[in-house]
Amino acid sequence: MTVLFEQMTIIGVGLIGGSLARAARERGLVSRFVGAGRSLGNLERALELGVVDRFETSHLEAVRDSDLVVVCTPVRAAVRVTEAILSEMAPGALLTDVGSVKAPYVRAVEAMDLGDVKFLASHPVAGGEKTGVEASFSTLFDAHQTILTPTQGTHPESIECLRALWEGVGANVEILDPETHDRVMADISHLPHLVAYAIMNTALGGEALRHASSGFRDFSRIASSGAEMWREICEDNQEALLGSLDRFERELAELRRLLKEADSEGLERAFQRAKDGRDEWARKKGWA
């Protein structure tokens, strides 16, 4: 493939950042990789694994001479990191992120003095419960969506450059505005995490868990996601997530009513509607 960037700096070389570097290296999309982050041990391991060519403990040193900087930290940290590095980024360099909440980050960055730095936020909708560079792998993004969230101030060239990068590492690229992105993620990602945590805590309150098997394991998988990170995601997307919770509570209340009233037909209709919807979604995704 064609080299898209000469040097990529990854701030936060974990599952997402490490996987992006691995995939871009394998496909020849980037010539050199620089890592930065909080954990010296993780950075040393990234170098040992060949994920990066060098690392810097200073974010300012790490971004110099890079034509692409990817901030792979939680949203609040990403805002602080971005503000700190902008003055050292090369003129014309492209800045992006990988956070799962977009509107707060985009608003914060667009209020900064970007100078000649180009900016476009990204969200690769892929991941897992494990963290750190050891968990990274080059096929993480294959056949998964990456959502770009441009605004009126986004340079068209930035969209094309990032589209080429994410498609180059195997992702299917979609375009949404930041607010729509956050509403969508509240429904399909953030709410499911809340529900998984609640189901797990419910099971922990009794004796049932020792009898649980693969169905409960699969349903509760995302309850193993990092508590600190997900607390912050939920807080950052509070408004959209509360709206999703309201809709979910209405659905749950209706199921409770049907069950309490012994409305067998109504209960089965609700289940069948959900089954048909999921089966159709899985079929379109090629998973059925």
Task: Map the helices and strands.
Elements: E1 5-11, H1 15-26, E2 30-36, H2 40-48, E3 54-56, H3 59-63, E4 68-71, H4 75-85, E5 94-97, H5 103-110, E6 118-119, E7 122-124, E8 145-148, H6 156-168, E9 172-175, H7 178-204, H8 214-219, H9 227-236, H10 238-260, H11 264-285
Parallel strand pairs: 1-2, 1-4, 2-3, 4-5, 5-6, 8-9
Antiparallel strand pairs: 7-8
Helix pairs in contact: 4-5, 7-10
Biggest sheet, open or closed, and with what strands and sense? 6 strands, parallel
Order of helices and strands: EHEHEHEHEHEEEHEHHHHH
CATH fold-level topology of the largest domain? Rossmann fold
Task: Tell me, rounded to a whole number, the average pLDDT.
Answer: 96
User: Beta-sheet strand percentage?
Assistant: 5-15%
Provide the domain count: 2
**Bulk shape:** elongated
How many extended strands?
A: 9
Which regions have little confidence, pLDDT < 50, spanning 5+ residues? none
CATH level 4 superfamily of the largest domain: NAD(P)-binding Rossmann-like Domain
The class by helix and strand makeup works out as alpha/beta
Oligomeric state of the chains present here: single chain
Mind telling me which CATH architecture of the largest domain this is? Answer: 3-Layer(aba) Sandwich
Helix % is 40-55%
